[in-house]
Amino acid sequence: MTFVNEWYWTKKPNWHVLVATALGAAVFDGISHVSSKAGTGLAIMVLIVAATHKVHGHSVVDTVNSWFNPSPSARGSSKTQRRHLSVA
Fold first, then answer.
1. What is the per-residue DSSP string for the chain?
2. Any residues with CB less than 8 A from the CB of 78 and at least 6 apart, and which?
3. Is the separation of the CB atoms in 58 and 1 below 8 Å?
4. Residue among 12, 34, 15 nearest 23 (CA)
């Protein structure tokens, strides 16, 4: 996720992220052989961090959110947005 998000925003791949992800996966595999619950718990924590960590001001969650919810300037004035938010 982080690799693609950074590539999306910078328009160039950062291979360090891909290598670090592969090494991290190997570590988690080793941990899961020792304790499957510990491996699963750590993997979930890393997934949450990877989804919310900001790269160049944007996290994966921010990027996906911007695809489905365009910025207020693209939809109209901020007053219109506030009115829709208060109704919902």
1. -HHHHHHHHHSS--HHHHHHHHHHHHHHHHHHHH-HHHHHHHHHHHHHHHHH--BTTB-HHHHHHHHHS--HHHHS-HHHHHHHHHH-
2. 72
3. no
4. 15
- What is the identity of the amino acid at 36? S
> Tens digit of pLDDT for each residue in 18-77?
898 889 889 888 988 999 899 889 889 988 988 888 877 888 888 888 888 876 655 444
Residue 31 burial (C-beta neighbours within 10 Å; 0-12, 13-18, 19+) = middle
Its domain, for residue 23, covers 2-87
Q: What is the pTM of this model?
A: 0.61
Q: In terms of C-beta distances under 8 Å and separation of at least 24 residues, what long-range contacts does 69-75 make, across chains too?
A: none
Counted domains in the chain: 1
Dist CA 88 CA 83 (whole Å): 9
